[in-house]
Amino acid sequence: MNLCKVCYGKTTTMTDKKKGMAYYRCKKCGFISLDKAFIIDNVREKKHYEKHNNSFECKGYVEMFERFISKAIEPYLSTINSALDFGCGHTAVLAKLLENRGLEMDIYDYYFFPKKLYRDKKYDLITSTEVFEHLENPQEVLNDLVQSLNPNGYIVLMTQFPPSDDELFLKWWYRRDITHIGFFTPNSFEIMAEGLGLKVVKIIDKNIVVFRKI
């Protein structure tokens, strides 16, 4: 039996019959993971990311981050001086927008900026947008980020929450991205927070969670 990567609960299986792909939905927290047999290799994954037009030239991409900052970061900006954008992609747009607001920024990306500057530092804020759905070991990564967070600091994640209905999930546009392998519910984030010394202070829309280190 496949156990949940978040809470180790029992799962049910969903199958994309057209592609033969299997997903496992946790009965307890709702987290969904793609069967590891269908996870693509690093070479193919990087090539997929290189196709993204995630730059300042893409107006919609910049506007998405401006909305993200307005909703999820500006309410806490008075207490934030230093920040890390974890998984910034090939163009660190969010980091630059936050730098323009006076924050001291570091960036990290597994493929494009692999130097782990954050290992020996502490931050008031860590952002990770459209990253956690790509991770095979989300608990381990979140724990790693907590170690680089100052007391009362914030971790803000952006990732789409999945439909609760299996049929709707299998039709869902977001899961069709070949690099998306894990899908979190607000409940799964609550459980992750409890085990890592975090508190969920806000859920925004259907894709943003704000944690505070306690």
Describe the structure.
The longest helix is centred in the N-terminal third of the chain and has 14 residues, at 59-72. The strands form two sheets. A six-stranded mixed beta sheet has the order 5-4-6-7-10-9, sandwiched between helices. Helix 2 (59-72) crosses helix 3. The model has no long low-confidence stretch (mean pLDDT 96). The protein is an alpha/beta fold and 214 residues long. Helices cover 27% and strands 27% of the residues. It has helices at residues 42-50, 59-72, 93-99, 138-147, 166-171, 186-196; strands at 11-16, 21-26, 32-34, 82-86, 104-108, 123-129, 149-158, 182-183, 198-204, 208-213. It has six helices and ten strands, in the order βββααβαββαβαβαββ. It is globular, with a radius of gyration of 17 Å. It has one domain: Rossmann fold. Helix 4 (138-147) links the parallel strand 6 and strand 7 (149-158).
Kindly identify the CATH topology.
Answer: Rossmann fold
Give the class-level CATH name: Alpha Beta
Output the structural class: alpha/beta
Strand content: 25-35%
CATH architecture type: 3-Layer(aba) Sandwich
Largest sheet at a glance? 6 strands, mixed
The domain count comes to 1
Uncertain parts = none
**Mean residue pLDDT:** 96
Please list the strands of the largest sheet in the order they lie side by side: 5-4-6-7-10-9
Helix content: 25-40%
CATH superfamily: Vaccinia Virus protein VP39
Give the N-to-C terminal Cα separation.
Answer: 35 Å
Radius of gyration: 17 Å
Based on DSSP secondary structure assignment, what is the total number of beta strands? 10
How many helices? The count is 6
Element pattern in H and E = EEEHHEHEEHEHEHEE
Give the overall silhouette.
globular
